[in-house]
Amino acid sequence: MAVLAEDLGRAAQAVSRGRDGLTAEVFSELAAVEGLWRGLEADPAVLMTPYQRFDWVSAYRGAGIDAGEAIRILVLRDAHGRARVLLPLTIGRRGPLRVARVVGDRHANFHMPLFASREAAAMPAEDLTAALVEAGRAAGIDAFTFRNQPRFWDGTPNPLAAGGLPAPSDAYGMLLGPDAEATLRRVFSGDTRKKLRAKERKLVEFLGPVEHRVAGTAEAAAEIQAAFYAQKAARFAGLGIADPYADGAVRRFIAAATAPDATGRPAIEVHALVASESGRILATFGGAVDGARFCGMWTSFDTDPDLGRFSPGEILLHRLVGHQAAQGRRALDLGVGEAGYKAKTCDETIELVEQTVPVSPASHALVLASRVAVRLKHRIKRSPRLWAAAQNLRRLR
After folding, report:
1. Can you tell me the distance from the alpha carbon of 67 to that of 105, in angstroms, rounded to the nearest whole number?
2. What span, in angstroms and rounded, lies between the C-alpha atoms of 335 and 295?
3. CA–CA distance from 76 to each of 121, 145, 177, 254, 284 (Å)?
4. Separation CA 237–CA 231 (nearest Å)
5. What is the pTM (predicted TM-score) of this model?
6. What angle do CA 123, 124, 127 make, to 5 degrees?
7. Strand locations in 163-250, DSSP E?
8. Is 251 helix (H, G, I), strand (E, B) or coil?
9. How many angstroms separate the CA atoms of 256 and 50, rounded?
10. C-alpha to C-alpha distances, 256 to 61, 233, 264, nearest whole angstrom
11. Where does the record place the BioF2-like acetyltransferase domain (predicted)?
């Protein structure tokens, strides 16, 4: 990988001009674009997901999860020199090919670019693709692979999703309203709210008062994360599968991303349902955030069977939805993948696609292989019988 980084180093700050006046700049350091990036984020016109916030990407990259891959930040400017698109990428080898993918891998539910505005996102898909190809040539990239591209974001079409294949799984979300109580009544049926109130009463009788906590300091976040790691470890052990959160680099990323910045806002916000008297953490929820949205990344609950009958995870989700609405956020999603609690809570399906953009002639075989793999995964995930067989095989392995 050192050779790859050296080769790509020569492409840093490479400039290429594509169709329709788009100019592509490729930078090799996050610091080189921090000012531009934060300026785009702060503009009310920006169209982006929380996973493309500078602080989220910086925490991820700094943890060393993709330490063997080079980083490149692609900036597309229009004929007037205005930055229209920003795309953080890592470059790794797949056989002889150098392949770019959006920073975050499976820890980011959405890999959409940052668009300066809805107007910027309205560029023809073929212009965006042509600019990517030109930038890829300048940066020594053979192909781009784009996972989990929303077809629409905040009601706006995503040009990078045009022509992509349906992803194996979609994501699920909801709009929030300015009135927290009205939002809760809309999201949770009267019967559901009644059941949750009954379960919470019984939980209080069992453990004493419970409270919803939002980590406001790095220390508070670390305490919640310690409970999360223990709960997830028990859950994965019960399923007989490896625990991805046991990786030290992943934990470093989460520690950095959950620490509040100078404004008091972390890149990842963590919540917990806590027994007030004992301090026991009964359930946790973490999500990438910006001013408008909470994107669920993980959830966990205490696996003690005596607690399971009170559904602490569902109680926390109810509190979380109300809290996000009260904070003024406009939307909340529960991430990619099918789950009963998502179907029960969410009223929006966020359709996702995947695609590979070839740059060099040698990459066309990769495109074909990727399309076959996406179709196969989609078929397996959408078939209960095939998915159950795949899960059983994973446990055996």
Report:
1. 13
2. 6
3. 12, 18, 34, 30, 39
4. 10
5. 0.89
6. 95
7. 165-166, 171-175, 210-214
8. helix
9. 15
10. 10, 21, 13
11. 191-342
Q: Are 253 and 60 in contact (CB under 8 A)?
A: yes
The rounded distance, in Å, linking the Cα atoms of 156 and 289 is 19
Both structure tokens of 155: 């009601």
CA distance 342 to 106: 19
Query: What's the token pair of residue 212?
Result: 């919803």
Rg of the Cα atoms in the chain: 22
Q: What is the spatial distance between Cα 255 and Cα 116, in angstroms, rounded to a whole number?
A: 29
Q: Which two tokens stand for residue 92?
A: 């790794």
* Total number of residues shown for the chain: 397
Closest C-alpha among 382, 378, 383 to residue 168: 378
SS3 call for 75: strand
Tokens at residue 234, please?
A: 């028990």
Q: Which are the contacts of 89, defined by CB distance < 8 A and separation ≥ 6?
A: 71, 72, 73, 74, 100, 101, 102, 103, 144
pLDDT (tens digit per residue) in 8-43: 443 445 555 555 678 999 999 999 999 999 999 999
Residues 6+ apart with CB under 8 A from 33: 27, 73, 75, 86
The answer for residues whose C-beta is within 8 angstroms of residue 26's C-beta and 6 or more apart is: 11, 12, 13, 14, 15, 72, 73, 74, 75, 135, 138, 139
Q: Please give the structure tokens belonging to residue 285.
A: 């929820």
